[in-house]
Amino acid sequence: MVSQIMEKELNKQLNAEMYSGYLYLAMAAYFEDTDLGGFANWMRVQAQEELSHSMRFYDYIIRRGGRVSLDAIEKPKFKWDSPIDVFKQVLSHEITVSGLINNLVDLAIEEKDHATNNFLQWFVEEQVEEEESATAVLNKVTLASESSNGILLVDSEFASRVFSPDSSE
Fold this sequence. Notes:
This protein is an all-alpha fold. The chain is about 75% helix and about 0% strand.
């Protein structure tokens, strides 16, 4: 059984992961509006990934005898100044999510909830990958923005990204 406080915090994280999916979907819509379909595809894939993360929390709460509690999802920003601006927010958002995951790990340790701590380790590693990916993409988009051809090349590259659920899900 998961404690009431851990259940509450896991539900908050489930909601945060759903917000992440919503945010990335808003970013995809922004890119659709600016005729950058490859960038939109990259964001749609990112949204799917975040929603799959929320389902990991959903399933875990149930497995531990908790009750899933879905809250309203905050409306995300939907306008940006440029692709660089979007990916700066992506990196900032992923850093924030890393902090949320770290806080959950701290709580699991405090509560001596070894099962939840173990469950959260996948997310700790995932956030390292998310921050690394967001940094690399921001750097690529920043370099490419020096020419319209560069942005179009990156757009073409991003069009080929596909969602592939992790085999451990």
